Amino acid sequence: MKNEKDLQFETKVVHSSYNSNKHGECLTPPIYQTSTFTFPSMEQGAKRFSQEQGGYVYSRLENPTVAILEDRIAQLEEAEAGLAFSSGWQLFQPL
Question: What's the pTM value of the predicted model, to 2 decimals?
Answer without folding.
Answer: 0.73
